[in-house]
Amino acid sequence: MTLRSVVRGVGAYLPEKIVTNAELAKTVDTTDEWIVERSGIKKRHIAADGQKTSDLAIAAVTKALAHAGMDGKDIDLFVVATATPDQTFPATAARVQAALGRPGVPSFDIQAVCSGFVYALAVADNFIKAGQAKTAVVVGAEIFSRILDWTDRTTCVLFGDGAGAVVLAAEEGKGETSDRGVLSTHLHSDGRHHDMLYVDGGPSTTQTTGHVRMKGKEVFRHAVVNLADAVTEALAANKVSISDIDWLVPHQANKRILDSTAHKLGLDPAKVIVTVDQHANTSAASIPLALAAGVDDGRIKSGDLVILEAMGGGFTWGSALVRM
Q1: CA-closest candidate to residue 227, choices 161, 166, 310
Q2: Is the pLDDT of residue 1 over 90?
Q3: Same domain, 126 and 233
Q4: Residue 114 among the catalytic residues
Q5: Which of 8, 74, 124, 293 measures 20 to 30 Å from 170, CA to CA?
């Protein structure tokens, strides 16, 4: 008997306020054509004044629980991936746990930037496989608009706010790739590349929040290689080929990165879930947002073999192979 973490529900939330490329062009030296050509992004959602990362997360979790036919009181573990928490402490996950009426069970945040959701999924999966939880909520939630330099056109046009969540439940499997649930996760990091994508602030350095800084060309080059390698690693670990994959659900950073990664893998672009045009790069929230979009519109069905992959500042990167 093999315990599997099966996806029982998915949910997504995007703030109401939408900022188009044309609107950005009024305040920063850019154009709609320039942004679309370089990133594929057409618009982004921005959190309202007073709206917190936990608010976005709670909204996404509420939808995921409804999709699963479950209640917050059914959950044994809350893991929130975020680089933009409500506060330095306590964890944003604690607010989510409290709002869902489940005091006493573990709740904590994970910070791996854009790879955060894959990292959080791996942690929750291992809790379930170890028998320490029977159900878990895994959330990616970000308000990146609060750490952007809105005068820097190389970064401010690329990011947005949002949250996505999945509900996991333990089920018995045969230990085969035909099992439903998380089949494997693969995590990596390389701190030598810190200065390529980072925030220039923090409690122990500047005592300020800081702003996102990025060397775009270098990040692009590393992303395509690392993402393709992470996918290949997951395929090899499970003895499946790229042709067996029904859907690739990647971190939604840049359409050119998605296209280049699919090409490097030899994957039909039609099998890639793309939502970056609708909400820009939402960091840890982007994979669950894309996953929810694919499930909601009927593309991703029960039994489909799905691979998730992401890379973020640090660098961090990773993948997960999941049968829905």
Answers
A1: 310
A2: no
A3: no
A4: yes
A5: 293
From 21, 45, 114, 254, the catalytic residue: 114
CATH number at residue 271: 3.40.47.10
The catalytically annotated residue of 21, 251, 254, 279 is 251
Task: Go through the chain and tell me how many residues it has.
Answer: 324
pLDDT tens, residue by residue, 149-202 = 999 999 999 999 999 999 999 999 999 999 999 999 999 999 999 999 999 999
Q: Are residues 150 and 242 in the same domain?
A: no
Active site residue 194: no
- Report CA-CA distances (Å) from 206 to 201, 203, 284: 5, 6, 24
Residue 258 lies in domain:
181-323
Q: How many whole angstroms separate alpha carbon 158 and alpha carbon 281?
A: 6
Cα(40)–Cα(31) distance, integer angstroms: 13
Active site residue 238: no
Q: How far apart are CA 226 and CA 105, in angstroms?
A: 35
Amino acid at the residue 32: D
pLDDT in tens, 89-134: 999 999 999 999 999 999 999 999 999 999 999 999 999 999 999 9
Boundary (domain end) residue, out of 150, 173, 196: 173
pTM attached to this predicted model: 0.98
